[in-house]
Structures are given as C-alpha cells and as structure tokens.
Amino acid sequence: MKDLVEFTIDNLLQQERLQQPAQAQQTQESGKKFRQVMATVPDHAVLHDVGSEMPAAHKVKDEALWKTSKQLEAIFVQQMMAEMRKTVGKSEFMPSGFAEDVHGSMMDEAIAQASVKQSSFGLAESIYKQLETAQGNVNRQVSTQEISQTADNLKMVNDLSLEARKHAH
Known about the structure:
Elements: H1 2-40, H2 44-47, H3 63-86, H4 98-118, H5 123-168
Helix pairs in contact: 3-4, 3-5
C-alpha cells in the first residue's frame, strides 16, 4: 500500500513539473497582453489629477488652512466609512460587543487618514477654496468695519465739538 501511495505521489509530482513550464509561458503571454492593453488605456490618475495635493493652477497660500481642509476631508471619509459599516448586517455566528465597535471605529479612522494621505477626493480642495474666499471676505469686512468705526468716531467727535461750541457761546 505504501508503495502505491508513493508511486501515485511521484506521478503527480512529475506531471506537475511537466506542466509548470507550460503554465509559466502562458502566464508570461497573458502578462504581455495585459501590459499591451494597459499601454493603450489613458492614465486616469493624470486625467483626473488623482493623488495630487493641490492642482498646479491653485497653489496653497495658507498651509494651516490646507491642513485643516485635509482633516475635514478625513473626518467626512471616516463618517462615510462608519455609515457604510452600519449597512452590513451583524453576524449571529460570532458574538460582537463594545470592543468590536471600538475596533471598527478605529479602523474607519485609520482608513480615512490613509486614504486622504494617498489621494484626494476633491473635498479638501473645495473646502480650502471656500474657506480661503470666506477668509478674504472676513478680512475685507473687518477693514470695512474699521472704516465705519473710524467714521462714527469722527462724527461723534465732530458732534461733541459742535455741542461744546453751542454751550460755550
């Protein structure tokens, strides 16, 4: 019986050795075909500017604002991951509890941070542009307020000096 098992195993190993060169050649050919097909496909990362920190057309002027925008994007992605996780039903096969929920939350946070570092969903750019515009508007409003306050102060000084002249005469 032992001889029969050894003979069968030897035959199987021999057949496998004979098939390996044919499989390796077939794998190489399919790899070449894949590379040829992929060479004709446009690079979507270039077309959609995926993975860039900020398009060249819009340079980051405020690093702190850009960092905050990226953090907001990560928070959004984390919340999206948490909502996606809620759609998956709980398994009755395995018990779950608080630790699993904490692990899932930490996993969502790690995935969100890593995905935002690796590529951009475009949210950070939109947030940055809007906050940059709002910041510029606030700066303009502050200067307008300062002008209004100065004008009000001048008017008040002028009114007080007129009152003082009336009472002096």
